[in-house]
Amino acid sequence: MKNAIVTGGTSGIGLGVAQMLLAKGYKVYATYIGADWTEEIENFIPIKTDQTRREEVYQFIARVKEECETIDCIVCNAGMSIRKSFTETEDEDWDKMMEVAVNSHYILVRELFSLIPHGSRILFTGSQTAIHPHATVLGYGVAKSAVHGLAKNLVKEFEGTGTTVNAIVPGFVDTPWQKEKPEEIKQNIYRKTAIHRFASVAEVADAFRFCIDNPFVNGSLIEVNGGYCYK
């Protein structure tokens, strides 16, 4: 059985990708924060890990190394958005957004590098905010820009191994994160999106599946945005 990791794997896009990997026969280790995960799913191992805390990331890595001889797929999905204006964003806010999206995933891939066999898949969840800057969350957009850069630069580290590295770049997705948005803001987003709605989690997860199944897709930013900012 192949082993996979999905960070932020118990909700939203992460859970959708984890379910897709389980259906493909992977054993999935998932990081998560928040309320304890109580549902039992065969071959799904959720491990509470606060990725703003580097020691917890190393604890997660140590457990994976204990239990797995190989890691065949890593999905670096976890992210964090602290909604404050540019001048109100504090150093700690900035550091947390960078730590979750960029630093923890750099460490994860680096520390597990020796366990990644040829022909594996490394995938990142990017963001349209790294392409079309968002007025209220500068730090999140910059962190996701760094995620895109990390994905492209890691291609060189896996050159000649058949392991591919790609980033899926969603627009607005119908996740619990988005459900808090006021209806007026949602309608504004719909009007900027040619398909006039948010993506479903399944539609985004299918882009991850495409990158897993196609061994020639490498170093790509795959946009799944419904034609966002088409006007």
Task: Walk me through this protein's architecture.
The model has no long low-confidence stretch (mean pLDDT 93). This protein has helices spanning 12-23, 54-67, 91-111, 138-157, 176-179, 183-192, 201-213, and strands at 3-6, 27-32, 44-48, 73-76, 121-125, 164-170, 221-224. It is an alpha/beta fold. The longest helix has 21 residues, at 91-111. It contains 7 helices and 7 strands. The chain is globular, with a radius of gyration of 17 Å. Strands 3-2-1-4-5-6-7 form a 7-stranded parallel β-sheet, sandwiched between helices.
Distance between the terminal alpha carbons, to the nearest Å? Answer: 47 Å
Mean pLDDT: 93
What is the molecular shape?
globular
Q: Give the % helix.
A: 40-55%
Number of strands: 7
Classification by helices and strands:
alpha/beta
- The ordered H/E elements are EHEEHEHEHEHHHE
**Which regions contain 5 or more consecutive residues with pLDDT less than 50?**
none
